[in-house]
Design brief:
The chain has 2 helices and 2 strands. The radius of gyration is 15 Å and the shape is globular. Helix 1 packs antiparallel against helix 2. The protein has 66 residues and is of the alpha+beta class.
């Protein structure tokens, strides 16, 4: 039970951290944006189609479950 509570806390922490970053993102310097992004994202892939359309695939850092 304790392990499950720890996992839930970790997930809640990730959500609150991500929300804080999104709420304040416009006021961050480029260096702060990069640092904050690394806290919550595993990786981002950018796809650019020949017609100029761009899409992002975001892979968040999530807690590992045993």
């Amino acid at each position: 039970m304790s392990e499950q509570c720890h996992t839930q806390y970790t997930e809640a922490d990730i959500v609150s951290t991500t929300q804080h970053i999104l709420d304040n993102y416009d006021g961050f310097t480029p260096a702060e944006k990069m640092k904050c992004g690394k806290k919550v994202m595993e990786k981002i892939t950018v796809y650019r189609a020949p017609n100029g359309e761009t899409s992002l695939h975001i892979y968040p850092k999530l807690p590992k479950k045993n």
